[in-house]
Write a structure and sequence with these properties.
Order of helices and strands: HEHEEHHEHEHHEHEEEEHHEEEHHEHH
Number of strands: 14
Helix content: 25-40%
Length: 541
């Protein structure tokens, strides 16, 4: 009897062990959800986690505090479309033909990771701004173009209605899409147990803003921190606080999404990425390869998957996102073009802080055309390389104006607009000059006061022509004010970064470097309004 009992117990015990192993295996094989929250035009310093006093971002802080905060994340470009293109393909924007350009067509052959996740059983979608601005297929004649947004299926039907109950928007410039409600709609359509990928793309804090909305939202101008490339003036401060109001709107909806996931028990199994597509929409920031143009906030959390409560200083790139997501979800990149980015899963799974992967020394970014800002819709080609301490910028055509031409043509009369877009009353008109900089009080303030000796250095920094190469010590000069190129003390750093940049551009097949058509970027059609500018005549004005 004793031996029979022992045998039964052993058999039962064996079954329990097998069942436990199967349960453990099932848990380990459960695929993580993916949530990407991406703001539109937010520089790296503008989260309360990073110490910013004039903005409150509890949702970002939650992800950064419980997960990993990356102090050196570089977007793919200082402009939306090429930057987002890099994120979803794992490739530099110069590798993606028209898909890497602002307001051009998205070709079917550039498969985003969302498609691969969907093919492998994920419920996929986005709300707000997806991968764009791009032109997607309009009808059957666009046979080579993609029809669906590269972020996935759109969930944008639920809107706020002006001045109706439930319209809680805190400023007039905020978009009508109710991001959280659309996310809930997306989740209702998910099958039980189905993993999901969702892209929450706010249109904030992209301009335009409601001027002085900060007053109604209780902002304190004494806390407004003006970056060193802008003058410390009340107009600039007010503009920055209006920007902060819209960052907080993005963060509010992220907070609601996180709370929802927590309430249904999915947050711990969700890899959450929170970032911005490029820097703040101010002069010397957005559309520039300076720190405040391409250096963006990034926090990633995944409680079930990697250790949190860390700050990591490794330089990471938007091109790294796609290979990381595919590795973390155990998904093969079937149908995707070869990726230049590298998975950072090893960094995520590590317990280390600071520099985790000593081999990851550099990341790369660049730009071509941003808005329609020069004769014949020409761009301003730039490539950049960033280490944990230095930034090297290659302005490939330094004869061009970096912020766009200083005067446009009146399309109705054919006459030249006044220089810098300043009319006879001294009022600046943003659409008349330097149109790679978004219309704003800050832009107009610099231009209207450009002759003031105290303002001229800021004006020149934003709008004047630049040397071919610029090198900055970003730890000590985050505003990128002191170009170190040509200084003997930094010659070794300068030469090494030039060499590494050229090597990567050659390896990645950048047409600007390897050809055969180095001007091919100028041939991609722009599917948004074109401004008229005079043909360059070799003069500065």
């Amino acid at each position: 009897m004793k031996s029979l009992t022992t045998a039964v117990i052993c058999a039962l015990g064996g079954g329990l062990i097998i069942n436990a192993c199967q349960s453990k295996e099932k848990k380990e094989l459960k695929r993580p959800n993916i949530l990407i929250a991406i703001s539109d035009d937010q520089s790296f310093t503008h989260t309360s986690f990073a110490g910013c006093k004039f903005v409150n971002t509890p949702a970002f802080d939650r992800v950064a505090r419980n997960g990993i905060y990356f102090s050196n994340c570089y977007a793919g470009s200082p402009g939306s479309a090429p930057s987002r293109s890099s994120l979803v393909t794992g490739r530099y924007h110069w590798q993606n033909e028209s898909c890497g350009q602002h307001a051009s067509s998205w070709l079917k052959k550039y498969v985003p990771f969302a498609d691969v996740l969907k093919a492998n059983g994920y419920h996929t979608g986005f709300t707000g701004k997806g991968v764009g601005p791009h032109q997607y297929a309009r009808n059957e004649t666009d046979s080579l173009w993609r029809k669906e947004n590269a972020a996935g299926a759109a969930y944008n039907s639920i809107k706020y209605k002006n001045n109706e109950p439930g319209d809680e928007r805190t400023a007039g410039g905020i978009g009508a899409t109710d991001y959280y409600a659309n996310f809930c709609d997306f989740m209702r359509r998910r099958k039980d147990g189905q993993p999901f990928y969702f892209w929450y793309g706010a249109t904030e804090p992209h301009r335009s803003y409601e001027k002085d909305s900060w007053k109604r939202n209780g902002k304190d101008p004494a806390l407004a921190e003006v970056p060193g490339f802008l003058p410390d003036d009340e107009i600039i401060k007010g503009d920055i606080l209006d920007y902060a109001v819209e960052i907080e709107w993005f963060d509010l909806h992220l907070s609601r999404i996180l709370n929802y996931l927590d309430s249904i028990g999915e947050l711990d199994n969700t890899i959450v990425f929170v970032t911005g597509d490029n820097g703040m929409p101010f002069p010397s920031a957005k559309a520039n390869a300076f720190e405040y143009g391409v250096h963006v906030p990034l926090a990633i959390s995944y409680p079930d998957g990697f250790p949190g409560k860390r700050i990591v200083d490794d330089p990471v790139s938007f091109a790294d996102f796609a290979p990381t997501i595919l590795e973390m979800t155990n998904t093969e990149p079937e149908g995707m073009m070869p990726m230049s980015g590298k998975s950072i899963a090893n960094i995520l799974k590590s317990k280390k802080a600071g520099i985790v992967d000593e081999t990851k020394k550099y990341v790369f970014a660049g730009r071509e055309r941003h808005s329609s800002s020069r004769w014949n819709n020409m761009g301003y080609p730039v490539r950049a390389i960033r280490s944990s301490g230095y930034l090297l910028i290659w302005n490939m055509k330094p004869d061009l104006w970096p912020a766009g031409d200083p005067r446009a043509i009146n399309s109705e009369t054919g006459e030249m607009r006044p220089l810098y877009g300043i009319d006879e009353k001294g009022i600046h008109h943003s659409e008349w000059a330097f149109t790679d900089v978004d219309a704003s009080p800050s832009k107009s303030f610099l231009i209207e006061n450009h002759n003031d000796p105290g303002i001229k250095p800021y004006f020149d920094r934003a709008y004047a022509k630049r040397p071919e190469y610029e090198l900055y010590d970003v730890k000590n000069d985050p505003y990128c004010l002191n170009n170190l190129c040509g200084i003997e003390r930094y010659s070794v750093v300068e030469q090494e970064m030039k060499t590494e940049l050229l090597k990567e551009l050659e390896r990645s097949g950048d047409p600007r470097v390897v050809g055969p058509d180095k001007e091919i970027f100028e041939s991609y059609v722009r599917y948004s309004p074109i401004r008229e500018f005079p043909e360059p005549d070799g003069t500065d004005q």
